[in-house]
Amino acid sequence: MKKFLTFMTILILTAGTVFAGSPFEDDHKTSDPYIADTTGGFDSLFINPAGIADQTEVFVIALESGFFCEPGDIQKIQDYYALYRSIDDNKGNPLDSGDASTAYDFLKNDLTEEQYNDMVAGTAIDPTQPGGVDQGALTEGDVAGLNGTDLETMAGNWQDMSEAELAQLYDIDIELAAELRAGTLIKGFGVGMYARQSLPFNAGAAGFNNMIGEAGIIAGYGFNILNDQLALGVSGNFGILTTHNDVTVFEMSDFWNQDMTYGYAWGIDAGVIWSPIDSLHVGLVLNDIVGSTVDDAGTTTWAALMSDHKSAANDVHFTYAFTLDADMGVTWEPEWRVVSPKFSFDYYNVIGLARYLNENSDNMEARDITREVLSHARLGANVQFLGMLDVGFQYYNNFYSFGTGIDIMFFQVYAEFVVDDEWMFGQADATQIGANLLIKFHF
User: Fold this and answer.
1) 385-394: per-residue pLDDT in tens?
2) How far apart are CA 261 and CA 270, in angstroms?
3) Distance CA 188, CA 223 (A)
């Protein structure tokens, strides 16, 4: 009875101060707990509050960072750096075989024809001069034959390019992201704070655009009943949502004073986990049972917001929807001696998917509908060896993820690699690849 009264008290207290929906809520990594996970600890507070029932982690602080990009963009960055280094290292001398190969890849594959002509103007391979070489006919031997003067001319051409030409040359987009979580979990009651930031970087603009951020507080409570066969939980959080536009890398040092649009949001989640046997768990979460968002709060800076000074609203508004949705999942977690496996099938945003298909399916092809339906499913497996070595795999949101790490006493480090599913089956070149790194201290 005391547990039930505590549960209702937390529900009432958080009703006016918390929210669950967010632009980051569908981001699930191989290291994240599952919906029916009963051993996820503090992190389950963000997934299913029923998963924190009767668990304790006195203090947790976790930092995650990651990136997504096109595979070719990584090669471009490597080629740019390598060419600059090789020109500088040779100090007016011809390129050695390794540097010639790098320069060849750069000139042949990373440049448009117009960029190539601008880059090699005035050198021995200038196609506008007698004996010059067009980009399509360029060979590695042509590049190896460049003398030191040619290389210095090429470096000067690079530096003399206009901002528009450089923006086109450096047309590289990398989606960076970072998250910080910290809090405590004592016998099923958890409270914490978090901050998340997306950083879409464009090399041509030398900056970031449409950076979406979220910072807030979270609280929840979970407990077991019916001889630990049924766990109930409620959680909620209050958050500030922000968007920064067109911030250069040189302005990031003064990020605190950069203009941003902002809003507030709150809501409540409730979850349940049923364990018919010790190793099998079935979970359900209702997201945003109640909640709302303020999308016209206006423009300000973090410095002004913290000092409670607000400027007038502008025409840029948030478009996040905070409506009732549901997640569900099944987890099998057999208790073996040396190896501790965990297998799960989760399905997210069941109600939201139904709404989306109802509104858009008439204009979608069968393949697109299938991919949309599959993108909400998360099929995952995690295995821990000897209580410290973690290995994870999942298929979620049309991406495959593979991760590994160690968890020794109070310290955990975990890294994962992500690649789109079409590349995995050889149906297309990889359109997106990524990686994530988690560093966590938990006591």
Assistant:
1) 998 999 999 9
2) 30
3) 6
